[in-house]
Amino acid sequence: MKIYRSLKISQKTLLAHKLRTVLALLGIIVGVSAVIIMIAIGNGAEEEVVSKIEAMGTNLVIVNAGEIKTTGGRQFRGSVATLTLEDVDVIEKNINSVTGTVPIQTKKIQVKYGNLITNTTIVGSSPNFTLVRNFKIEKGVFFTDMEERASMRVAVIGASVVKNIFGDDDPINATIRIGKVPFKVIGVLESKGVDMYGTDQDDQIIIPIRTALRRVFNQTYISSVYLQINKQENMEIAAASVQKILREEHKLDKKNKPDDFTIQNQVDLIEAQKETSDTFTTLTASIAGVSLIVGGIGILAVMLLSIRERTNEIGLRIAVGARRKDIRTQFLFESSFLSIGGGIIGIIIGIIVSLSIKYILDWNIVISLTSIMLSFGFSMAIGLFFGVYPAHRASLLDPINALRSE
Predict the structure, then answer these.
(1) What's the pTM?
(2) Cβ contacts of residue 379 below 8 Å, gap of 6+?
(3) Collapsing DSSP states into helix, strand and coil, what is residue 227?
(4) Is pLDDT above 80 for 188?
(5) How far apart, in Å, are the Cα atoms of 309 and each of 145, 273, 313?
(6) How far apart are CA 246 and CA 250, in angstroms?
(7) 173: left (phi over 0), alpha (psi -120 to 50) or beta
(8) Which of 156, 200, 342, 382 is deepest in the core (most CB within 10 A)?
(9) pLDDT tens digits for range 105-115
(10) Distance (Å, whole) CA 379 – CA 289
(11) For 58, how many CA atoms within 13 A lie in the half-sphere containing its CB?
(12) 3-state percent helix, strand, coil for the chain, nearest multiple of 5
C-alpha cells in the first residue's frame, strides 16, 4: 500500500511540473534512441559486409601474387609475375582438401560491339569460376574445360555490360571485340551487385584464362587463385600447405626469402571485418551514451530543485511519522519514473527512426534485442544513480528546520 501511495505521489508531483519533467526526459530519450539507432546501423553494416564476403564463395582460401596492402579500406597490390597456372596445377594435385581452383587475371580493356564502345574489366578464369565464386548463369552457358584448354575466343558477360553495349539486343551469339580480338558471347551472368570493396561485379567479362593470357593480356602470369576447401575446419591447414608448396615451387626456402605471395583465409576476412565493425559500433554507441549521462544530470538537477521546493512537505511528513527510508524511497521512485519513462519513449523513437532509415534511405539496418535491453537497462541505472544523492539528501532534512523554511 505504501508503494502504491508513493507511486501516486510521484506521478502527481511530476505532472505538476510538466515542462521541467519533459526537459529531464529529453536527455534519456535522446540517449536511448541514439544508442539503438547507432547499434542498428553498425549491425547492419557488419551484416552487409559479411554477406558480401560470403557471396564470394564458400570456404575460400585466396592466394594473391605479391604483398597486399590496404589503404583507405581498399586493397592494392604491386605488379608481381611469380604466380602461374603451373602453381595452380601443383596445388590442385597435392592438396586433397582443395575441391576447386579458380585462377584469376584481370585488366580494364576497351570492348566494342557495333558502334558502341565501353571500358570494362576482363577476367581470365577457368570453368570452375561460377561454382567457386558463387556466380550463376542467367542466360546461355559458361565455357567448358575443352574450350578453356583450346584457348577458344568465347565470353560470358555481366549484367552491366549487357546494359552498356547491348541495350535491348540479345547478346547470346553476338560478337564483341576485346581490344582487337573478336569473342563470341555464349552466356550472361546473373546480377550480383557490388562487392565488399565497392566494385561492380556485373561490369566484367569472363573469358578462358589461357585465351586471356595468350591473346588479350600477352603474359604468362596470373594475379590470384581462389581455392575452395571441402570443410571450414580444414582451411587453416590448407592455407599452410599452400604456403609450403608455393615456397618450394618458387625456390624461396633455399634462398630464405619472404613469401612472394599473400594468402587470405575467408574466415579471417570475416573476423577482421567484424572486429572493425564492432569497434566502430562500440565507439558510436559510446558517443551516443554520453546523452544518457547528460540525461542523468538533468534528472539530478530536477530532483535537487524538487527537494528545495518541497522542503516544508518533507518536514511535515517526517513530523507526522514518516521514516527517513520512506522519504528516500519517494524520491527514488520519482527519479525512476523519469528514467523508465524516458527509456520506453527512447526505445520507441529509436525503433521508428531505425526503420525509417531502412526503408527511406535503403540502408541495411539490424535492430537487436540486446541493444534495446542494454540501452533501457543503462537508462534505469542512470536514473537510480543520479536519484540516490537527492533522495539521501532529502531524508537527512531536519523536520523542525524544514517546517520553518519558506
Answers:
(1) 0.66
(2) 28, 31, 32, 292, 295, 339, 340, 342, 343, 346
(3) strand
(4) yes
(5) 88, 54, 9
(6) 6
(7) left
(8) 342
(9) 999 999 999 88
(10) 9
(11) 8
(12) 60, 20, 20
